[in-house]
């Protein structure tokens, strides 16, 4: 009603024609801005960060809260309920997920009074000034060597009952983060399934609990681990959200252009197999290390910046996964700081977005506003056995040309598939195939792979190297070194 009056509708009889139309025009602008503001708030998912503290050189909790606010990070997940941290977050406007550690699951499961006391001391004492929005009961309990799995559901139920006594149960969600190792199958995504020994005793009751309480499943997903263990078959660009031809899921026909979406959809598929399609997922941990041991393939500052920067863009600009396209995601990056006291491989101490002195390990944005001026400078495809061959067709290796990529034929494919793809490229695809005709500059070597490579690259370059234009049913792949068959040079643009 205030908008109507301000826009002049109430005075249309009194105003002259020109004045009235100017008022209408002003109104239209206001309404458009209002609509755009509404959509700008609803479009896209939400980013948070994990604030781990296994270190002896971190800034104070008060300084950390100021850092979070300065970066526009309005969600944080902590691994305990440290009073200094929760007090520092009071009045900050930052939404908080706290953790009941695995070592307390037994007490929380066996003694409702313990759960009530824990909520009283660690939640009710701070909320709502500290905006606690969720409680992670345990963390990756299925891989906990202390066998805490059997205590998970009773602990969650007792924590939920304690929240009800404070009337917090509709405000604060209760869940538990699972690792992808809880899946029996994760590839292809459509075959996603939970480990059978956990289905009846844990997952069905867990998912029932989440459904009944309106909560979500917390998932920790790390494409880095999958890539580091399978770099011979997984493209680094696929793992880092960079340009790639995608991977088709033979089970449902969906094409995936990044490993993160594929991993999340494997969990969605596992839930769907048990008839829990109505439960959402929050990704409570994901990240990429900026440093690792020699055998930790892919751990580098450049790759960490690419993964996390492109992930932020993917989440904040909206859209779900191929299985849940309309469901935006909430994702927590791991982690806020490098933590020098963590045990294990070098990567464990180098997941931080910031050094302990609060300087960025690499510069990426965390907000939509920051994304407007963000341009990640992607390195051409370098990951995976096939993509990194670097062979130019005559046994020599060409130097990498920064910023350029080419499309070449997969010589391991059957001839019939290559020929069909070549026929398409030179026909309906509109590739410039004149140079591979008899007597032309690229006719020799007269092999199917060489001719198909030239045609595929022509099509790829004509299409502006767009995602998916170097695929041809799996008969092609992208390279970052200039292909050269005999004396034939492949163009980089038309």
From TrEMBL:
It holds the Pfam family X8. It is found in: Cell membrane. The keyword Ribonucleoprotein does not apply. PROSITE patterns: GLYCOSYL_HYDROL_F17. Transmembrane segments: none annotated. Its EC number is 3.2.1.39. One of its GO terms (cellular component) is plasma membrane. Gene3D superfamilies: 1.20.58.1040, Glycosidases. One of its GO terms (biological process) is defense response. It comes from the Eukaryota. The keyword Lipoprotein applies. It is a lipid-anchor; GPI-anchor. It catalyses: Hydrolysis of (1->3)-beta-D-glucosidic linkages in (1->3)-beta-D-glucans. InterPro entries: GH, Glyco_hydro_17, Glyco_hydro_17_plant, X8. Residues 405-490 form the X8 domain. Keywords: Cell membrane, Disulfide bond, Glycoprotein, Glycosidase, GPI-anchor, Hydrolase, Lipoprotein, Membrane, Plant defense, Signal. One of its GO terms (molecular function) is glucan endo-1,3-beta-D-glucosidase activity. Belongs to the glycosyl hydrolase 17 family. This is glucan endo-1,3-beta-D-glucosidase.
